[in-house]
Structures are given as structure tokens and as C-alpha cells.
Design goal:
This protein is mostly helical. The protein is built from three helices and no strands. The chain has one domain. The protein is elongated, with a radius of gyration of 19 Å.
């Protein structure tokens, strides 16, 4: 007889604020990745030129989509920059 798998931890729904913070973090991370891809593209050779071209296009499309969602939720760029600095300050304290 097989035992059924039972969850020991109940999944907790994220609040709207948590979802907005997660969206802001994703926008910040995507923007930073796009900057790195652009920087790496400048020094890429051979097949890496195609790779970074793809990465830049993919991250730009992702960033455009995330910003569209943020605007629909009423999140402004100033809020994103504010959260960016707050997020970094909290990470530094945790170290």
C-alpha cells in the first residue's frame, strides 16, 4: 500500500504589496541584466555576437512587458528606483 504525499507546509498566498515588490525586483534585475548584455555585446566575437543579440532582444521584450504591467498597476519609475535603493540597503544589512 502506497502512502500519499502530504504537504507539511501550507502555501501562503502573496499579498498585493508582495506581488508589487516582486515585480519591481524583477524589473530591476532585468534592467541590470540588459545592461550587462549590452556591455558584453561590445566585446563579443564570433558566435557570441548572435548570443548577446538574442539576449538583448529577449531582455528588452521582457522589460517592456514588465513595465507595461507596472504602469497598469500604477507603479511609477520613481517608485522602482526608490525600491531599488531600499532593496539594496536591506541586502547589505543582511550580510
Amino acid at each position: 500500500m502506497q502512502e500519499e504525499y502530504k504537504k507539511e507546509i501550507q502555501i501562503i498566498e502573496k499579498t498585493e504589496i508582495d506581488r508589487e515588490i516582486e515585480l519591481i525586483k524583477t524589473i530591476i534585475n532585468t534592467r541590470e541584466q540588459l545592461k550587462r548584455d549590452n556591455s558584453n555585446f561590445e566585446y563579443a566575437q564570433g558566435d557570441l555576437v548572435d548570443y548577446y543579440t538574442y539576449q538583448i532582444k529577449a531582455n528588452q521584450a521582457k522589460l517592456d512587458y514588465l513595465i507595461k504591467i507596472a504602469k497598469a498597476k500604477g507603479i511609477e519609475v520613481d517608485m522602482i528606483n526608490d525600491k531599488k535603493f531600499t532593496y539594496w540597503d536591506n541586502e547589505e544589512e543582511a550580510v
